[in-house]
Each structure stands twice: as C-alpha cells, then as structure tokens.
Design a protein that fits this description.
Blueprint: E1 6-13, H1 19-35, E2 45-50, E3 57-65, H2 70-74, H3 78-89, E4 100-105
Antiparallel strand pairs: 1-3, 1-4, 2-3
Helix pairs in contact: 1-3
Length: about 110
C-alpha cells in the first residue's frame, strides 16, 4: 500500500515590513522540501492576506507532504531547517494566534442543490 499525501494549509503571521524577506525564503521553501523527497511533485502555492481589521500581513501557503510522517522527518534535516529557522524569525504571534499555524486539509465533497 502506498503512502497517502497530506495537503497542508500554512498561515504565516509575518512581521510588518518583513514580507519581501519572507517571500525570498518561501522561494526556497518548497524546493528545499522537494530536494530531500518530502513533498509531492505539485509545487507550493502562495497568497498574501491581512488580519481582519488591520494591515498585519498573513502569508498563506498550500502544499502536500508525501505522507503524514514527512513533517517530523523535516525537523531532522539541515536543508529544511536552514529555511525554517529564518522563517520563524520573521513571524510573530498576534493576540491569541500563533506566529505560524498549520492545518491538514482533507477533500470535502459538497453536493450542489
């Protein structure tokens, strides 16, 4: 039986004035994960948003791990940590929200009326 990919939605609460630098790290993020065989062939997709009622930037990223064990493995690899550590320094907690938030996504079939 083959491993089942896991699609993840990442919300990065980027410090104001740091979006451009963060974007440079995102350009390296998926390629770093791909170079060590952790993600599917579909490249990451990205969006820029803002916290409701403010100009505080939120960068959104969606990509798919090859399987549920890959995020744990990523923490063991220097190629990945070389990107993740500086990404963390450019993000901040806001209110009761973490600096980075990761949600596993599952397909949802919606029948249209």
């Amino acid at each position: 039986m083959s491993a089942k990919p896991v699609t993840v939605l990442c919300l990065y609460r980027v410090k104001e004035g740091s979006v451009e630098e963060f974007q440079g790290l995102l350009a390296k993020h998926w390629p770093a994960l791909d170079s060590v065989g952790l993600v599917t062939d579909e490249p990451a997709r990205h969006w820029l948003s803002h916290e409701k009622g403010s100009d505080a930037p939120v960068v959104v990223e969606i990509f798919s791990w090859k399987d549920a064990s890959m995020p744990g493995r990523a923490h063991e690899l220097p190629e990945v940590m070389a990107v993740w550590e500086p990404m963390g320094g450019l993000c901040e907690e806001r209110g009761n929200k973490p600096s980075m938030e990761f949600l596993d996504l599952a397909p949802l079939v919606v029948e249209h009326a």
